[in-house]
Structure formats: C-alpha cells, structure tokens
# Entry
Amino acid sequence: MRRFAALLALRCPRCLSGRVWRRFVSMNATCPVCGFVFERESGYFAGAMVVSYGLAVPILAAMVIALIMLGGLDAVVALIIGNTAYLVLVPFIFRYSRVVWLHLDWLIDPQR
# Structure
C-alpha cells in the first residue's frame, strides 16, 4: 500500500519518499533522499512510452465513450473533442508514465 501511495505521489521507488520531479517537467537526476539514480542509461525511459500508451488509451477511450453516450454526440465530433481535451492531460501522463516505469523496474530488479 505504501508503494502505491508513493507512486501516486510521484516518489522514489527505493525509499518511497524522495521526489522524482523537481519542477513540472524537470526530473531530478537522483533521489534527493536516498541518492537512487533515476536515469541509469541512455534510452532508459523508452519503456515509459509503453506505459504512457497503456495509460492514454483507456483514458481517451473513456472520454470519447462518455461524450458519445452521455453527451449524445456523433463519434467524429466526440473524437475531436476528446482528443482536444486529452491534450491537457498529456503532461500529467508523461510524469506518471516515467514514475510507473521506475517502480516497475525497481520491482523487477531492486539491486540496480
């Protein structure tokens, strides 16, 4: 449960308390609490793109389906509105996809 709370709060996968993000789109190189190196090699966060896609598809699908079902909109109009509204969420999904990737990697190989 602590890990899930740390993930939601965008915290370090090792100590569960250090902040991963310094500013909104600027990541710390290491954890300010335990010194865990976040980006261990070039291209490390390529896997976060898969996580980002996994987060984006259900969110966008839910938005479009809600617009069609609840709003009674045409599918094309719902897609246009849903995609436009989704652009607001992109920075948040970017941040969470990286933190989810860090936590998944830590769970698979905690020695690194």
The longest helix spans residues 46-69. The CA atoms of residues 8 and 96 lie 8 Å apart. DSSP finds four helices and no strands in the chain. The helical segments are 2-8, 46-69, 75-86, 90-108.
